[in-house]
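User: Second chain of the day. Same drill as before.
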Amino acid sequence: MTLREASEATGVPVSTLRNWARKGRVATALEESAEGTHRMVSLEAIRARARQLGHPVVEPGTTTTPVVPPPAPTVDVEEVAAPPPGTMLVPIDAWDKMLIQLGNLHQAGQQLAEARESAARAETEAEFLRERLAELRGTPDPPPQGDGRLLEETPITPDPGPAQPAKMPRFTAYLWRMAASGRKR
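Assistant: Same format as last time:
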């Protein structure tokens, strides 16, 4: 019989029968007719395969009736199993809200790390520029800015007059232009 007829006779879906036929699980034959080509299967082979796999099979002489699943059992609140120790039940919307907040916290941590890195670069660049400025002016290095205490007292010397312009290397001139304009690299 055809796959459709075998499906109606056994209750096994046509798609399942077609898969069994393609995979060679049941013997089939193709027959030509005026309506086209049909795949023919043995009804007993289908029943045997269905029983082997545990599929419900409509036996000969019985009528096919739709199978209605049994109603879902009602559960009393007292019968609900308690969650395992160390766990708790959380409403899904509260869980989703917490995950969003956790994501925001992670993003804020990343932004803070980037800001700290940028501040460290700016400090290093400022220190370099202070040293370079002191070098170009011909004055001793300025005291460190760390804790605000002077390491030693330096006497104030009178201004020797206008300083001769020094020829700056190209990169240093670039850094000065950047510092004067307030732009960042």
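The longest strand covers residues 28-33.

User: Great, on to the next one.
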